[in-house]
Amino acid sequence: MHEIFEHTADLGLRATAPTLELLMADAARGLFEIIAGDLAQIRPRPDHTERFEVAGTDPTWLLFDWMSELHAAFELRRMLFCGFDVSIDAAGLHATAHGEPYDPARHTLAHEIKALTQHELCVVEAAGGWNATLIIDI
Amino acid sequence: MTDTIRDTPSDRGFAGPLEPVDECLWRIPKSSRPGMLVDGLIFADERLIPQLRSDRAAEQVANVAFLPGIQTASLAMPDIHWGYGFCIGGVCATDPAVGGVVSPGGVGYDINCGVRLMRTNLSLADIEPVLVRLVNQLLQDVPVGVGQGGRHVFSPAELRMLMQEGVPFLKARGLATDDDVALAEAEGCIADARPEFVSDRALARGSDQCGTVGAGNHFIEVQVVDRIEDPAAASAFGLHAGQICVLIHSGSRGLGYQVCDDSLRALRDAPAKYGMSLPDRQLVCAPVESPEGQHYLGGMRAAANYAFCNRQLLMWQVREVFARVLEKPWHSLGMELLYDVAHNIAKLERHQVGDTSKDVCVHRKGATRAFPAGHHDIPNRYRAVGQPVIIPGDMGRASWVLRGGPRSMERSFGTTCHGAGRCLSRTAATKAARGRNIQEELLRGGVVARCRSREGLAEEQPQAYKDVDIVVDVVHRAGLSLKVARLRPLGVIKG
Fold first, then answer.
1. Contact B432/A at CB under 8 A
2. Which terminus of chain A has a lower count of CB atoms within 10 Å, N or C?
3. To the nearest whole angstrom, how far is the Cα of A89 from the nearest Cα of chain B?
4. Beta pairing partners, A101
5. How many A-B residue pairs are in contact by the CB < 8 A criterion?
6. What is the enclosing helix (H) or strand (E) of B293?
7. Smallest Cα–Cα separation from B104: which of B296, B356, B243, B235?
8. What are the backbone angles phi and psi of residue A26, rounded to the nearest 5°?
């Protein structure tokens, strides 16, 4: 699960999951909830499924770089995603993202994300799972 | 939002030491935390202290005091609030000659986020009958909000020229006047920009965003001058009571955000390489004189010039809308730039530090340059009174025009506040807006507000901000910048 926590000027995203893979998928859903509000308005289209490969081993940077790629997919290609299949191995993160391009006639957007910040950025393994914290510049 | 998102309170406030220095200044002594190289100094008065204690901005002021080469103090303005790395409202000067650093976090993602004020020869009586139509037309014709591209699209080659030349690039294309260049900070072009350091991804994000407002706290506002505090300075700035003005707040859009993001990525290993221990990852930095520092500064200046051009194209589009609605050429409406000034920037400037005059790298993150009368970087026509300083408040109450104050150079590296400063988080503001119609509330207060997103008006409602009159009162009493005119909002468009 994930939650938005208070930050005076921006938005904080905190996610918890039993595995690192589920954590990455859940944080990604949180990112698109911040951009688009309700994910139910996104109808995944098979022709717009995208693959992402993110190299690295440090879980914190892996999260940051993965989220940065998703943010870039919205900024550069106007892609809205709502579902994620994530696997992680020694090379890094491999993911499939399901979604569709932004359509002003059907989608409402909630926030313009300027950037994902590194302030208090962390991914830690805790009892029974993983926690992530990310502050997002709005 | 789905039910997987819920609100939780911010983790904690600031419980550390805050010692009064005078009625407008508070100190976090460097002895309070091992590693601080200088004191933290926060401009505020008693009215602002409860807010200052409520979030973690003051802790960030102390964190900045760890930066190598920092001079005098880690400073913060009275609109201070919790940011990332640096607080918003933070000022830090470093000395390159002693290994002083430049930190992208000291500028922020929105490089050269700033404001420009345009005056007109219109009065309230001229505008009131057409105000609703004018605001609706602004919303329709000026790109604002998430996902809104602009009508000015630039190729990568054109963008590189634009970032090298700044507003003169637009003037050569008939999109700026001589005064539009002369009356912007740095004449709309910061020297030594290195557009070749700007990545392809940044260029792609910036290709259709020059001339777009964006979202968040950015806006275009039609205002009326409701009070003159300093008639001589107001006259020099071409302002009088009852006059209509337009305030534009935006920055370097996706291009600038990407330049910052790319720089932070490139600097990941810099602290280890240069043997620095930093209390926050977002404070990552490199010596000004290092290859990494020079790379950041070159790209940052290029993005800053893009931001000047963004606000210029926004102003140009506002002129066109006024001309259409009022059915007169904009020249005949007296729509002239008063000034354009950055509030997210790092600049090499000459300052007196102790007994020595030296070049320092001044970071202003949510803080505005405020050079006093006589400074050579002020346009000739304003030099006798001081640099115009434009302080946006909130969309329900007021904004201010100030002038650089007599004590800004000695107290704050020629700097003052940049706005009212938030006092409610976005989540708290949204919660406070439930069951209310913010647009109607603003209209009852005489403000026609139009916003592209549901969240925009709720998160940016006036109650989310401190009272700008109090913030301005502090910088006035501290001598950082002096009151010239108060402006009241009439109409606003937001993302």
1. no
2. N
3. 22
4. A79
5. 146
6. helix B291-326
7. B296
8. -70, -40
CB B384 within 8 A of CB B236: yes
Contact B347, B362 (CB under 8 A): yes
Residue among A3, A61, A120 whose CB faces B8 most closely: A3
Q: Confidence class of residue B53 from pLDDT cuts 50, 70 and 90? A: very high
Q: How confident is the model at residue B466 (pLDDT cuts 50, 70, 90)?
A: very high
B422 touching A (Cβ < 8 Å):
yes
Q: What residues in B contact A41, CB-CB < 8 Å?
A: none
CA pair distance B78, B59, nearest whole angstrom: 15
The helix/strand/coil state of B45 is coil
pLDDT mean across residues, chain B: 95
CA distance B385 to B236: 7
Active site residue B476: no
Beta bridge partners of B297: none
Q: How many CB atoms lie within 10 A of CB B9?
A: 10
Q: What is the mean pLDDT of residues B358-368?
A: 98
pLDDT digits (tens, 9 = 90+) for A61-114: 999 999 999 999 999 999 999 999 999 999 999 999 999 999 999 999 999 999
| Closest approach of A46 to chain B, Cα-based (Å) | 23
- Cα angle B382-B387-B392, degrees, rounded to a multiple of 5: 120
Quick one: closest CA in A to B264, which residue?
A118
The residue whose two tokens read 């409701």 is: B226
- C-alpha to C-alpha distance for B271 and B287, rounded to whole angstroms: 10
The neighbour count for residue B299, using CB atoms within 10 Å, is 28
What are the pLDDT digits (tens) for B158-215?
999 999 999 999 999 999 999 999 999 999 999 999 999 999 999 999 999 999 999 9
Assign A81 to helix, strand or coil: strand
pTM above 0.90, yes or no: yes
Separation of alpha carbons B182 and B378, rounded Å: 10
Do B82 and A8 make contact, defined as CB atoms within 8 angstroms? yes
Alpha helices in A12-125 (DSSP H): 20-36, 59-77
Q: For residue range B276-324, list pLDDT tens digits in order.
A: 999 998 999 999 999 999 999 999 999 999 999 999 999 999 999 999 9
B453:A108 CB<8 A: yes
d(CA B270, CA B284): 7
Which whole number is the average pLDDT over B472-480?
Answer: 98
